[in-house]
Design goal:
It contains 13 helices and 8 strands. Strands 1, 2, 3, 4, 5, 6, 7 and 8 form an 8-stranded parallel β-sheet that branches. α1 packs across α2, α4 packs parallel to α5 (125-138) and α5 (125-138) runs parallel beside α6. It has 368 residues and is of the alpha/beta class. It binds S-adenosyl-L-homocysteine and iron/sulfur cluster. Iron/sulfur cluster binds at residues 72, 74, 76, 79, 81-82, 118-119, 148, 315.
């Protein structure tokens, strides 16, 4: 007997209507949106841009990114900072250098800094707590951490020291892909880090890379459902960009179009989330960040790392903005935002805690 093939996915117009109407999350409508092309793709991006304007509005929040150490104990197959890459020079900023960079950022008008690094145990629970406390004492900045996987005690110490937010991308929730690209990480452990961060009261950011080997729209749809269950408030998306000193050097990598579609779907699914137009999008296309801001994104993360070490934080190749000083970057990014008819956020850009449709539970969404 011939097997009947039933396409369980909705047609694009029905799928878009489901997204706009806040339907319960289901791969049946997420997949056709993530696979949209041509006119459908344009309709999806426009719907997300409209939703962004209605929910989080026109302001774009700036987060100053300080990449303070490129040492890493891990060997993720995609990342140029992986431990076994001995072609890069390693650096660490001192506590004083981090503070000085943060003070400069605050003077320029930043309200938030993001401290990011490889998984560098030199910055122990104690050492990092001291830095966070000093930052909170000397500035009014919101402090976001992105230091990878640590144990609960450490996350607790940093929260107690005053850290406000944490970014930890899950990268992919597909157990097969995750295992293939992470020789020394465990998907369940990483998920648990996110649950712990949530429990400890951090404003929580996660996200995925797009275009990983073996990843398809169904896999991304499942990621979205997982992110929703986690209760994520900030979502970082970027195309995977192959780095020549890594095992994935010969892979194709992600495209801007894939990343834009994912951002658009995420904006429809998480209307009040904070989503950056990431540097990886600006790397793949000179107008990539602008396009992301017009497809649902509402955050930018200018690099304020001291220029002397900036080129050494090469997670992927050809990173943009390697030699502009922090004030030049601020000016450039502001001009790009204004060029789109948008405004630069003047408050702290705290998360709006959301439960999916229809009511919102607002948390900390006011000036401090
Ligand atoms: N060590 C921390 C934070 C630094 S890496 C961590 O891993 O969480 C920050 C992000 O860079 C990672 O979450 C990953 O999504 C992204 N990244 C790493 N290598 C990349 C590549 N080759 N292309 C695109 N993004 C990459
Ligand atoms: Fe290290 Fe993060 Fe790069 Fe993995 S992605 S090698 S943990 S810096």
């Amino acid at each position: 007997m011939k097997k009947k093939i039933i396409n369980k996915y909705m047609k694009f117009p029905t799928a878009l209507a489901a997204a706009k109407g806040g339907a319960a999350l289901a791969v049946e409508w997420l997949v056709p949106l993530l696979d949209a092309n041509g006119k459908d793709d344009a309709l999806l991006l426009a719907a997300a841009d409209k939703k962004r304007a209605e929910t989080v509005g026109d302001s774009v929040h700036l987060r100053g990114l300080i990449e303070f150490s490129n040492y890493c104990r891990k060997n993720c197959h995609y990342c140029g900072l992986r431990k076994e890459n001995n072609k890069i020079n390693r650096y660490r900023l001192s506590k004083e250098e981090i503070l000085e960079t943060a003070l400069k950022a605050e003077k320029l008008g930043y309200k938030t800094i993001v401290l990011q690094s490889g998984e560098d145990l030199h910055f122990s629970a104690d050492a990092m707590s001291k830095i966070i406390k000093e930052l909170k004492n000397k500035t009014k900045l919101a402090v976001t951490l992105s230091l990878g996987e640590r144990d609960e005690e450490t996350y607790f110490a940093w929260k107690k020291a005053g850290a406000d937010r944490y970014l930890l991308r899950i990268e992919t929730t597909d157990p097969v892909i995750f295992k293939k690209i992470h020789p020394d990480s465990d998907l369940e452990y990483r998920k648990n880090c996110l649950y712990v961060l949530k429990k400890l009261g951090y404003q929580l950011g996660s996200g995925v890379m797009v275009g990983l080997p073996g990843q398809d729209a169904l896999s991304l749809a499942k990621d979205i459902i997982w992110l929703n269950n986690l209760g994520v408030e900030m979502i970082g998306i970027g195309p995977f960009l192959p780095h020549k000193e890594t095992p994935l050097k010969d892979e194709k990598g992600g495209t801007l179009a894939q990343a834009l579609r994912l951002i658009a779907v995420l904006r429809l699914v998480f209307p009040y989330s904070h989503m950056p137009a990431t540097t990886a999008m600006g790397t793949i296309d000179p107008m990539g960040r602008e396009k992301a801001l017009q497809a649902g994104a509402n955050v930018m993360m200018p690099n304020i790392t001291p220029t002397a070490v900036r080129p050494l934080y090469e997670i992927y190749p050809n990173k943009i903005c390697l030699d502009e000083s922090a004030d030049k970057c601020f000016g450039c990014v502001t001009a790009r935002i204004i060029g789109l008819g948008r405004t630069v956020g003047t408050d702290y850009g705290d998360v709006v805690r959301q439960i999916r449709n229809p009511k919102l539970e607002i948390r900390n969404n006011k000036d401090k």
